[in-house]
């Protein structure tokens, strides 16, 4: 495993991050989830990402149980706040001071820790003044319940405004967590340059495009049994946008490149996002321990300029690049 600094801070994280969206508390049984976490630890992964909204708080509990008895100082644990949780009442959502301060306490209890290394705004809240949100995050840091703050899926302008307020409050906003893959490049034109200027790193999710970049989905064929596209608990909804025949055909063109390098298509996809210097880590999920071990093997792989060019040629114009696709809900979800 290799490690990278997160933003303009002294915190190092594993460049492969284990995340439990759509898996813990939902797609896989708790015993299997624990096996996956232990496989991640065995592979040298020290950074774990979750959120209070995943499986309506259950994912945090499962991760906390799986990490029990590990040396806390050797781990970097990240979680997030914004989406509705618990009974999903009118204040159980968003980035109000009330919701942030109540949510961090719930997250720490479920994770079984006194603090998280990174506390993230899971989306931008258009219904709460940004000053209120950033002051609440600053208070979370000053109370010792989080060491750093980050955000997820914020636009370049939102990052700039949040960073300015964090600086005024003397806390460190060091990361953004966007979707990023060969097929989803919407951060490249605005978010990445702005982040580089501000000292913010990307922690990217879905580097394998919900499994599409593994090559297991074929144009004109039914999704394999047991795959995310066949999952009725949320997985199928998350992947649907990538399952167009023109996308799946382009992805098959990546197989010869992976074969030439002697790696899997998933490893190629994870290695690709890590070539971006503004990316500190790639979040990978798994429903089986062997998937964790395979994904972790992408750490340290460096792709030549020629290989990067061939990947661009294979993907062609099926990749999404419009910066406007980085967006948060205009109103808080119910």
TrEMBL record:
One of its GO terms (cellular component) is cytosol. One of its GO terms (molecular function) is oxidoreductase activity. Residues 15-314 form the NADP-dependent oxidoreductase domain. It comes from the Bacteria. The keyword Cytoplasm does not apply. Keywords: NADP, Oxidoreductase. The keyword Chaperone does not apply. Belongs to the shaker potassium channel beta subunit family. This is Aryl-alcohol dehydrogenase-like predicted oxidoreductase. It comes from Leifsonia soli.
